[in-house]
Amino acid sequence: MADSPSVATKIVDDFSALVTGTQPFKLSDHAGKTVVLFFYPKDNTPGCTAESMRFRDLYPEFEAANAIVFGISRDSLRSHEGFKAKLGMPFELISDPDEAACLQFDVMKSKSMYGKTVRGVERSTFVIDGAGELVKEWRGVKVPGHVDDVLEFVKALA
Description:
Layout: E1 10-11, E2 16-19, E3 25-26, E4 34-39, H1 46-64, E5 67-73, H2 77-87, E6 92-95, H3 100-104, E7 108-113, E8 116-121, E9 124-128, E10 133-139, H4 146-157
Parallel strand pairs: 4-5, 5-6
Antiparallel strand pairs: 1-10, 2-3, 2-6, 4-9, 7-8, 9-10
Helix pairs in contact: 1-4
């Protein structure tokens, strides 16, 4: 494969979390499908909105490649429900207020904002194959073109 994974493959520990919709999220419930987890800093902010809208717009192509997409941030389930409805997202959003998933995927970073150091989510995306192996990760993501890159990688797995 021309685009080799940026990580050595490893099995991702199962985890559960609060999620929009009616069913709780548990990673192992999605065995056999490619799972795309995109971590983003905050609902209703410009970059996060743009990234979520691009995942929304390309979602049918992710589905055609046997992939399911989940967005994750530290926002509350209530905030996620509003954000999801506002943008008409066809995928669910995982609420991680205790940072368990963020810590598992090592996306919590110190950032400088307005001259102060703050701790926040580093925009990152992870692809887990149907066997539960982490096969690709992107860290420090810049939104333009990113979702297209993820889709290209997922299609190559299908």
